[in-house]
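== Folding task for one protein ==

=== Format: two labelled lines per protein ===

==== Paired sequence and structure tokens ====
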Amino acid sequence: MFKDSIPLFCCPRCRSGPLSTSEGCDAPDVLFGFVSCPSCQARFPILSGVLILVSNPRNYVATHRSAVFESMLGADCTQQMEDYVRACAEDGCEFDKSEEPDESDCSAYLNSHYPSSITSDDTPITRFVDLLSTITDGYWTVLLREISKARSSGYLFDIGCSVGGVFHRTQTENDGWGGYLGCDLGFRGVHAARKRAISQNVQNHQHFEFIVADASELPFAQSKMSCLLASNMIDVTSSPSETIRRFCNAIPDGGRLIISTPWYWHSGVSSMDDPLWSRDSAQCLPALIDLVQGFSGFRVVDTHRDVPWPLTISDRHLRLFLCDVASFVRECQ
């Protein structure tokens, strides 16, 4: 985590801010340490450069301990941080292996979000993904077009950033954003995104950051946000309508909201009683538009239906989704 990112965040528990740095946070790029809330005294760890900004960070580290331990191998980590991670892992929280793919699957998934010209993989799957990416008005073409329309000197907040595909593509577009903040609940993906951004010596953005955070908590300072992008994550939240309500409340006047989703519902994840939940995907986009425009000042700018999105799950497993994309603006009141 870059130390000058601190003003971007607030406490996910009590919403107070700004957070303050504590032990181990002296360098400009902090790999291990803590930030804390001056109001409720909650502490949030920085592990391998990734800030864990969720309400219960100990439980999160326990659940994702495999990926966390893997990221720390060979790292210059203090004994204090090693003890913290080990203590979290021994808290008795059940470890769900399904939370994190194995390393080979993560690599294939990561590369599916980046052009093969910057990856080392050349397989039938990656060649097929490259072919699909040439489709007119394919997923990345449509999404980048909408992001470009929202361009400003403020920050692009990428909720559900996964392995950083949006960040890489906005960099290659040299789109002039004042900064980028990506967040996701998957530690391995966020860590991979950060490593790739640093290894590519990114210079186009004035600032970027990748953290672990929950879309239902949004621990961010509203004043920095110009555009909130929620890419293909609404249908894997426990309460999609409530999540969108939080998004709308977080966006300042003049800000943009861009939502893309394949409406790939999981009854065990999202409530079937949610107003957006429907087995008829044709009903979902109109319901989304009505929901967002029900908040003060929001107006739909553009919509796209059935946009093809190829996604590599592993080196022999490819899925093709059809996504809807909707862009909104919050007009000044």
Remarks:
- The longest strand covers residues 298-314.
- The longest helix spans residues 187-199.
